[in-house]
Amino acid sequence: MSQRAWLWCVAVVLTGLIVVTGCEQAQKAEEEMPPAEAEEEAAPTQPTSGPVPRAADLEPMALSIALEERLPPTVPLRVEWTLPLKSGQRVTNLWVPPEEAGVDFLLVLTEANDLIAVRREDGRALWWAQLEQTPATPPACSPFGVYFVSGGDLIHLEVETGRAIWQLPLSFPAGDYLQVTEAQRGTPHFIIQGLTRVVRGVSAYSSMWPPPRGYGSLDRKDLMMESYHLREDWKFGAKGSVIGPVGAGRGGALVVADDAGWIYGANRGYIVKGRPNIDWREQTKGPNVAGVGLHEPYAVVPSRDRVIYCLRMGDGATAWRYPTGELMDEQPVFVEHPATGRISVFVRCKGGPVLCLGLDDGKLKWQVDEAATVIAMGEDPERPEGEQVTVVLRLPDGSLESRALQGGQRRWQVPSGFLDLAAEAPARSMIFGVHEGDTLCALVQE
């Protein structure tokens, strides 16, 4: 063996010894590393664009006795849980996804554009995502994701972790409302309201890159990456500017109202030249001013002519009309009696009152003079059977009020100042709100 070859062998052996020794030292240092340092070293790489997920470092605390002491002694409410945010964080919005969304959390948005998912049952923070911009639409949820429009992009967050799955630019300016329908893990479908007269149906799908045949001598298994795209499935044009949200029902049913006074019934399952087939249309005597309230088989639409229209979704026939004599500015809210199954419709007039109507006949049950908002349901077990179900209203001054669903009798009231913000969840038995700007809380009626 030549001297050069011998020196090369010695160098290889010494290099191997150095590598092995270094690995052993690194492993030993990792075992001795304090937990906090270990977590810092193991922090995942953050994406360079789009919503940035962070580990949820918020923890629920025990029930706040001080918070309960601020409630009037005659009010049968209990603080189920509280969740204080970090110092300096203040809540700007709360959303409680509907039951059909299939998720068990509520969504909280802070001034710093942090979106936090909080479990409804116990107030535990499930995940926390930092957004680049404030969402332009309320989040739409499904068992497979959280979706919203922000900065002209449609964004999908993973429902379990808040991690950004994709962020895709829209080819049109979006309005204030987004709905997800027929959600699937791979191909969610959306209804997006435009800024003017157009409502679009959009779907997201994924593809693999590079193409299955690969490129040249490269092994395509080493290069395959999933890429996401948006596809416009249909486009619906109204005569006037669309008033949102639109009503999306089962079987592809679509009900749209515009500010020209027209109400349209269309079928998303029957597309002709890129447009849903229009099954019927009705015109009111004034422009529509609030979104369509949908409770199949009925669509309820408030109009500027001071009349509430209830139409059958199948053929557009008028089931009933109720003249309010007042202008209306909110989408109707439906509350189902858990024992009888009868549906009540709450319609808020601009400046008041709030009307409670029967969905089956349109007759007035009761009304509240103030422009209140229905935020939750309740139950008063001490009352006789049939009078136990209540609704909780939030009045314009911020106070809370409980009234019987059947007759509207007042049961209790919480003065203003207790909740700075309350989520609208008329089908839920919990009251979700914010105390002093930075403490989430859930209240239940005892």
Shape: globular
Strand content: over 45%
Radius of gyration: 28 Å
Strand order of the largest sheet: 1-6-5-4-3
Q: What's the CATH class of the domain at 332-446, please?
A: Mainly Beta
Helix content: under 10%
CATH topology of the domain at 332-446, what is it called?
Thrombin, subunit H
The major pleated sheet works out as: 5 strands, antiparallel
SS-derived structural category? mainly beta
Total strand count, please? 33
Note the total helix count. 3
CATH architecture of the domain at 332-446: Beta Barrel
Q: Name the poorly predicted regions.
A: 17-23, 25-63
The assembly state of the depicted protein chains is single chain
Task: State the end-to-end CA separation.
Answer: 91 Å
Q: Kindly state the mean pLDDT as a whole number?
A: 81
Provide a descriptive summary of the structure in words.
This protein has a domain at about 330-445: Thrombin, subunit H, CATH 2.40.10. It contains three helices and 33 strands. The chain has helices at about 5-30, 35-40, 65-70; strands at about 50-55, 75-85, 90-95, 105-110, 115-120, 125-130, 140, 145-150, 155, 165-170, 175-180, 190-195, 200-210, 225-235, 240-250, 255-260, 260-270, 275-285, 295, 300, 305-310, 320-325, 335, 345-350, 355-360, 365-370, 375-380, 390-395, 400-405, 410-415, 420, 430-435, 440-445. Strands 1-6-5-4-3 form a five-stranded antiparallel β-sheet, with no helix packed on it. The chain is globular and about 65 Å long.
